[in-house]
Design goal:
single chain, 12 helices, alpha/beta, six-stranded antiparallel sheet, seven-stranded parallel sheet
């Protein structure tokens, strides 16, 4: 089970301070469920190369089991076909340094070809991909995936596995020391930068690639007498910030156009603001994860605890200060069918829509646990709420962007910039189909979408016009 009881215990003392943080901005009074995004907002939107404001909705795609010749074999074309068929446009693809460079300086051409094949599938189904350099508990030296064994240095410190709470393994002395060496040893710094240059050089021009997530859920070493929140902010300030600047430079030496995604430590999930400093790159995205320790340990959602509110207040401070977009790289509880989980999904999606340019749920697979869908490809309980209408790209300045799950109605208001191309509205399959209404000098390539079909509707408009797009269910005949 992917539990985080260790974090829950270590930061419980901070909850009172967190809940007293400033509340997020109030939602639109005309939007009682709070699923609104009103511009201008203090956090910029992600944009494409034409300047259109993007919204990413999708899922993580992974193969953590297979290695070597079988690496990535669990990911198939079906993943991307099904993502698009449900109306999603985004995938966060997990790749592993230990597979890319199993021996120092020897990069696997076969692994790069497999990544390229996956990107080709994504392109075929119009899915944008974030390439994520993933690690769990540092890497294979500790029974997981990520940093190669040859780049793992522990100074002989002990490591004890925690099979019932794998996140606790991050706090084992050997794992913590391995992170310190990765951040501080000059030869490991160079090796990590070379790894990113290889990836960026190979995939710079691939049409499916949106950007690069430089490291998944980075952690570090606690000092004597240091509590976890203090350590997390120090690690983010003194080790992650310079690392991200080094790796951004490495990516830019090969790829000048795609976005660079940076993560805080996972401690942000407890509503603690990050200590990250400025990343000196013009195309940086803040990419926190959205996990609650109690829910990860199997608890139901507790609306009275104020976790979503405290998380939103904490997680928005850094991108507001730095003026960079937000995309949440992972989220979604393990036990999604508990009594309060329907409310959790409504309130979580409302919160994410207020400040982020999108998200990737965890994880697109076919079965139980964290899987988005079951073996038949049907959404598991409550996860159907993730499939809703949205503006995948807005050719203009967004004025209002709202979705009411009660009436299943989506409304976009924007000031068109004709030179940026057409606005695109993504619609998931619906039992009743969809009706598209326009107000203003704009056109749509269709005004109705039949039942059971996902569709992307293009809306060209005259420059400088105020356009309103309303999507609602078709009246059944």
């Amino acid at each position: 089970m992917r539990t985080r009881r260790t974090i829950q215990a270590l930061v419980a003392v901070c909850c009172t301070l967190v809940l007293s943080a400033a509340a997020p901005a109030a939602a639109d009074p005309g939007d009682p469920v709070g699923m609104s995004r009103l511009d201008p907002r203090p956090i910029p939107r992600l944009t494409d190369d034409r300047g259109r404001a993007l919204t990413l909705r999708g899922w993580n795609v992974e193969d953590k089991t297979n290695r070597g010749e079988a690496a990535l074999s669990a990911i198939t074309e079906k993943h991307f076909r099904d993502l698009r068929a449900k109306g999603f446009n985004f995938a966060r693809l997990l790749v592993f340094w230990d597979d890319l460079e199993p021996r120092e300086g020897r990069y696997s051409a076969a692994y790069l070809r497999k990544i390229e094949r996956i990107l080709d599938w994504a392109e075929a189904y119009d899915i944008q991909v974030l390439i994520d350099a993933h690690q769990d508990v540092f890497g294979p030296a500790f029974g997981h995936r990520g940093v190669p064994e040859w780049a793992t240095r522990t100074d002989g410190l002990p490591f004890t596995p925690h099979p019932d709470d794998w996140f606790a393994e991050y706090f084992e002395p050997a794992v913590q020391r391995a992170f310190t060496h990765l951040y501080e040893d000059e030869d490991l710094r160079r090796a990590q930068a070379r790894m990113w240059r290889v990836l960026a050089d190979r995939f710079e021009h691939h049409p499916a690639v949106l950007g690069y997530d430089l490291i998944n859920e980075p952690m570090g070493e606690l000092r004597a007498g240091e509590d976890l929140p203090t350590a997390a902010r120090r690690i983010e300030r003194d080790q992650l910030t310079p690392m991200y600047n080094r790796l951004a430079d490495a990516v830019r030496s090969a790829d000048g156009g795609n976005w660079i995604f940076v993560e805080p430590t996972p401690i942000v999930g407890e509503g603690l603001p990050t200590g990250l400093g400025r990343i000196e790159d013009p195309k940086v995205v803040y990419a926190p994860h959205f996990y609650n320790a109690a829910m990860e340990a199997g608890a139901d959602y507790d609306p009275s605890a104020g976790w979503i509110e405290s998380y939103e207040a904490a997680v928005t401070a850094y991108p507001q200060e730095q003026r960079i977009p937000v995309v949440v790289g992972e989220w979604g509880p393990l036990n999604n069918s508990l009594p309060n989980m329907a409310r959790f999904y409504r309130e979580a999606l409302a919160s994410l829509s207020r400040y982020s340019s999108g998200w990737a749920g965890y994880v697109w697979c076919y079965g139980g646990g964290y899987c988005a869908v079951d073996e038949r490809g049907l959404f598991r309980t409550n996860k159907e709420q993730t499939a809703a209408p949205y503006a995948a790209a807005v050719a203009g300045r967004v004025v209002a962007d709202t979705y009411d799950p009660g009436s299943v109605t989506y409304r976009l208001v924007y000031r068109a910039h004709g030179r940026h191309g057409a606005t695109e509205i993504s619609l998931p399959p619906s039992a009743s189909g969809w009706r598209i209404a326009l107000d203003g000098p704009a056109w749509a390539d269709t005004r109705t979408v039949p039942a059971g079909r996902a569709c992307t509707v293009r809306v060209p408009a005259l420059p400088d016009a105020r356009i309103t797009v309303t999507v609602s269910p078709r009246t059944p005949r």
